[in-house]
Amino acid sequence: MKPFDILVAGEINPDLILSGNVIPAFHQTEKLVDSAALTIGSSSAIFACGAARLGLRVAFLGVCGDDLFGHFMLGELEKRGVDVSNVIVRTDGQTGLSVILNQRADRAILTHPGLIAALQVSDIPNELLQKARHLHVASYFLQTQLQPGLPDLFRRARAYGLTTSLDPNYDPSQAWFGFDELLSVTNVFLPNEREAGSLSGEAHVDLAADRLGNKVETLGIKLGAEGALGVRNGQIVRVSSIPANVVDTVGAGDNFDAGFLYGYLNGWSLEKSLRLACVCGALSTQCRGGTDGQPTLNDAMTFLK
């Protein structure tokens, strides 16, 4: 048995979440928020914690600074059962940071990239790939130094018997490029509805699913409170979400990914994997930040039954 179920190659940064019904204004205007919290940030790290919470064995490879935010992230990941022994800690750069103004179902984000983009394909040795069953990459558009070699990395991973997954996340440039070659070597593609539309050039989610579903083995499109849409081998499945008392939506998509890949790696049907994914995403919104509401497998299975 390989030591890890999933190797995550991703970005490392905390989130500073400010919650309240407030719109910021310049000209030295001070406004008060209801709460503030420093939490685990980055799509990749939240996903890693969610997968570990479900019982998967997770290793993380990324780059952070030898600073307060870097030490915070490594400590929190390790506390949640994620192996961080391969993380690269650099003294010549700063760990990234996202400041999030949260208004329940919506949020605004300001990100200082720092070392978020620093991970390169050359940092990922074959020896580490051989220890995992699956390779997951998120935040494609932020990981700019990883982008050029990612198709070759996925090919290398697949040659060692790993399956691969990709969550593109939002493109700050809104150019939405660089995916045709990459999707051809991606087993599981996990965009949200907006990302699927932008990448496919289709305004309607069903048309986007049809186009993207022909490019990958398995497609799971996140539809927020409406559930999810999946495509595999020509099979199209829609599932609904569950009711949730939404505190904030930070990390909901990453926890959806964790649930979906748990099902995928355990040979579940497309429908059952989507249902677990929706449960994990919904439950995570009931607490502040992306990790405090992450369910165990037993918690999530209660809703599936």
Strand order of the largest sheet: 4-1-9-10-11-12-13-14
Strand content: 15-25%
Radius of gyration: 18 Å
CATH superfamily: Ribokinase
Instruction: Give the overall average pLDDT.
Output: 95
Number of helices: 10
Shape descriptor: globular
Structural class: alpha/beta
CATH architecture, please? 3-Layer(aba) Sandwich
CATH level 1 class label: Alpha Beta
Query: How many beta-strand elements?
Result: 14
Total domain modules? 1
- The separation of the N and C termini measures 30 Å
Write the CATH fold name.
UDP-N-acetylmuramoyl-L-alanine:D-glutamate ligase
* Residue share in helix: 25-40%
List keywords for this structure.
305 residues; alpha/beta; UDP-N-acetylmuramoyl-L-alanine:D-glutamate ligase; eight-stranded mixed β-sheet; 23% strand
Explain this structure.
This protein is α/β, with parallel strands linked by helices and 305 residues long. The chain has a single domain, classed as Ribokinase (UDP-N-acetylmuramoyl-L-alanine:D-glutamate ligase, 3-Layer(aba) Sandwich), CATH 3.40.1190.20. It contains ten helices and 14 strands. The chain has an eight-stranded mixed sheet with strand order 4-1-9-10-11-12-13-14, with helices on both faces. A four-stranded mixed sheet has the order 3-2-7-8, covered by helices on one side. The chain has a two-stranded parallel sheet with strand order 5-6. The two termini are 30 Å apart.
Q: Which helices and strands occur, and which strands form pairs?
A:
Elements: E1 4-9, E2 14-19, E3 35-40, H1 43-53, E4 58-61, E5 63-65, H2 68-79, E6 88-90, E7 97-103, E8 106-112, H3 126-129, E9 132-138, H4 150-159, E10 163-167, H5 180-183, E11 188-189, H6 193-200, H7 205-213, E12 218-222, E13 228-232, E14 235-239, H8 252-265, H9 270-284, H10 297-304
Parallel strand pairs: 1-4, 1-9, 2-7, 5-6, 9-10, 10-11, 11-12
Antiparallel strand pairs: 2-3, 7-8, 12-13, 13-14
Helix pairs in contact: 1-8, 6-7, 8-9, 9-10
